[in-house]
Amino acid sequence: MSQAEVLSGGGHLSALSIISTIAAKEFKDNLRNRWLWMMTAILLLLSLSVSFMGSAISGSLTMFEPAQTLSGLVTLSVFILPLGAILLSYDSFVGEKEAGTLLLLLTYPLARWHLLCGKFLGHGCVMAIACILGFGVTGLMLVLLGDAKVQLSIVSGFTHLILSSILLSLIFILLGYWVSLCVREKAKALGILLILWFVLALIYDLVLLTVLVAMADILNRELFNIVILFNPTDLFRALNLIANPADTLVAKSSLTLIAQTGLGLPLMYCLFVGWIIGLLFCCHWVFKQQEI
C-alpha cells in the first residue's frame, strides 16, 4: 500500500497521525531495501576494526586507551556519517517530483510541514538505529573485555559518540532535504551534496588552517576556534575531543585547540540542536514557497 493510499483511507487524521504514517512508510522503505542494515554493518565493521584490528598485528588482544579508540572512530565517522545521510535524503523531494507522487500527496489533507516532518522522523530513526547498533555493540564488547577502571570512560565516550553521531546525521539529512527542494533533477542534487560534503568534511579545515598560518600575528586564536564550530563536522569532532580528553599524543587531533575556547559539552549540544532547528525552518520555508 502506498503512502498516498494510507493517507486517503484515514479520513480526518491528526497531525501526529499523518506524520507518524509518513515516518513509518519511509522507515519501512529503508528496511525493505536493506539500507538500514547496510549502514549498520558499515558502522559496526568500522568500529570493530578501529577497536580490535590493531591488536591483531601483535597476535594478542590488546585494549587501546579509550580516548585513542574513540579518536580513531571520530576521525573516520566524520566522513562516513554525513555521506550516509546524504545518500539517504538527497532524492527525498526531487525524486518525488520526478515520479509525480509529490503532487499527488499534496492533494490529500496534509500540510507540507507534515510531509517534511514525517520524512525527517523516518530517516532520523534509520540513522539513529544504525548509529546505536553500529557503535553500541562495539562499546558493549569493550566494556565486557576492558578493565574495571576504564569501563566508565568507555561507556561515557561511546554515549557521547552515539548521541553526536545521530545529531550530525540529522543535520546532513536536512541539508539533503534543502538541496533536494531547490533543484529539479536527482543527479544535480547528489552532485551538489557531494561537493558540500567534500567542502565541510575536508576543505573547510584546510582553508582555515592555511589562513591561521598566514595570519598568525593578526588572527585571534579563540576566534579561529569558534569559526571552526560553525562547521557541523568540526563541531562533531570537537565535542568528542572534549568529552574524551586524551593524555597521549596519538589520541589527540589537530582540533585540540578548540578546547581552549571554554565551550562546554552542553553548549556544544545546543549548537547541534540549533543547526537542526535552523535547517528545519529553512527547509519548511523553501518547501512552502514552491509551486509543485
UniProtKB/TrEMBL annotation:
One Pfam match: ABC2_membrane_2
Membrane-spanning residues: 36-57, 69-90, 127-146, 158-179, 191-216, 263-287
Keywords: Membrane, Transmembrane, Transmembrane helix
Recorded GO CC terms: plasma membrane
Source superkingdom: Bacteria
Transmembrane helix as UniProt keyword: yes
GO molecular function annotation: ABC-type transporter activity
PANTHER family attached to this UniProt entry: ABC TRANSPORTER PERMEASE, ABC TRANSPORTER PERMEASE PROTEIN NOSY-RELATED
KW Ubl conjugation (keyword) present: no
Signal sequence extent: none
Organism of this sequence: Shewanella morhuae
Name of the protein this chain belongs to: ABC-type transport system involved in multi-copper enzyme maturation, permease component
